[in-house]
Amino acid sequence: MLHISRGLFEQIHCHLQRCYPAEGVGFLLGVEEKGHRYVRRIRDVQNEAEQGGGHDRYVVQPETAAHVEDEANSMGLSVIGVFHSHPDQEPLPSAFDLDRALPWFSYVIVRVDKGVATGSRSWRPQADRSFQSEELKIV
Fold first, then answer.
1. Dihedral sign of CA atoms 63, 68, 72, 74 in order
2. Helices (H), 1-139
3. What whole-number distance in Å separates Cα of residue 139 and Cα of residue 130?
4. pLDDT attached to residue 17
5. What single DSSP character describes residue 101?
6. What are the pLDDT digits (tens) for 44-87?
7. d(Cα 5, Cα 15) in Å, to the nearest integer?
8. 108 φ, ψ to 5°?
9. Residue 119 sits in a domain of what CATH number?
10. What pLDDT score was predicted for residue 31?
């Protein structure tokens, strides 16, 4: 289960709505305790694919991801996942998402319709190269 505060959840939605019609992206920073993940901070980042359109995928450069990981470590946190939007599409993992998924991350996908966040789901990659729905608890 992924736990996130209403305030952080709203910040995610605001960032992804600003990115519309391109996909927006960011990282979930937090801790894992007894099988539950707790998001303590988020870090939105530039979708590097925006330069080529970015409407159907996101790209984060390795140096950006490393910088966010260093930030998380300095706060006693870990990068526990990624959030991104699917403009005008269901919040379901795409083949592109699956191809790049890291098995230890949670993936929060937000549907953004005409610039408004309308639905969110969290997913965890599985060993068989599929995604399993993860309960998303807004607290």
1. positive
2. 6-19, 62-74, 95-100
3. 28
4. 97
5. -
6. 998 988 555 556 788 899 999 999 999 999 999 999 999 999 99
7. 16
8. -95, 120
9. 3.40.140.10
10. 98
